[in-house]
Amino acid sequence: MSVSFRFIHAADLHLDSPFKGLSKAPEAVRKGLAESTFAALRKLTDLAIAEEVDFIVIAGDLFDEADRSLRAQLSLLQEWKRLAAEGIAVYAIHGNHDHLGGKRAQMELPPNVHIFGAARPSEIPAYRRTGELAAYVYGMSYGERAETRNLAAAYRTAPEAPYHIALLHGNVGSNASHDPYAPCTLEGLIGSGFDYWALGHIHKRELLHEYPHIAYAGNLQGRNPKETGAKGCYVVDVSEARKVDMRFMPLDQVRWLEEEVSIEDIVTEQELLRVLERRVAQYEEKEEGGSLMLRLRLTGSGELHRTVSQPASLAAWLEQLQESWPKLSDGRWIYVYGLSSSTSTPIDWQVLQHEDSFAGELLRLSTRLRQNEEQWRELAGQAVADMTDHPRLNRISREKWNTPQKEWLQQAKELTLGLIAGHDEHNRRT
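Above: the chain sequence. Below: its structure as tokens.
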């Protein structure tokens, strides 16, 4: 017999994760980043209590290192004790970052916590706080960092379970931008008989399939400039009829964002600085959320293209923005940690399309390739063929290959023709 219940799906806490390359940032920024993973953990507990969830599942990488810090272990134990006082159970696995082969302190876990071992997949009944059986939770931790087996293939459902929730820390569908740990296919998970696959390892939140539900919750707190946007967990409601409702709840203490600022119609350097300052001020006016790590990227085409293409100019604008970085209420702040440019020389595309020149022929070629993906991929494959023998360059090229074809082609067109147009303009002036 099925009952309705509520649980939280979280993953990739990465407690005590280091934040590198920010030695010149203000102390408040460095301290805020260092504390952010612990703050997100406390928010997770607060959310579980406020939402009156029955239990929490955590899909791996609770700690950032296999030889986990004592502070991280004590902090996690404290939050689990808070949950125990509210009758909220915790079911967790360890992943590649915090595999069971690492060093850890000998601590007695509260009775509400169950950590799955690394020998084989196992299961345990999960109950509502009122005592009714809600589901069975299944899981398997990593015994070592490089787990290359398809762990999901060994999971089996228990026939007496009213609902099946499987924890897996792995790479579904061979995502080329992440390590191929515990690789499996989406089709394999769909046909496995489980009702909900709570996934970890990929830090981008994504619902891969519904009924059965297969989802990455992402990490609780962004750890670097690549992990932009809101981070948090899913609150999942399952009805007696097994209908599933998933709500994403942000928990990050410091959010990484990248914003584009167009230089179009901006004529002077001072005017651009004012535009950048106004963009930062827009976030200053927002009262909700935590602190913000902001990277600004100049885009578009305009008269300032040559100026913003010079590293010294970008450094000067960035220094001005950082000197006036705003401290908000409740200890929050906004820090502009980067300023980059991907602008282009102003080009009259209509004129160039019909121009009898090398640049005109390049533009017409890009237009043909944009309309013929097979031809484009063949040409692009030939261009990067020499990179395949180099391990690191091959990985970068595979990541780029996942970029949408039209987006990559558009970038190549604007960069190449922009350089040609800029060179021609420079020759005319000299």
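DSSP finds eleven helices and 15 strands in the chain.
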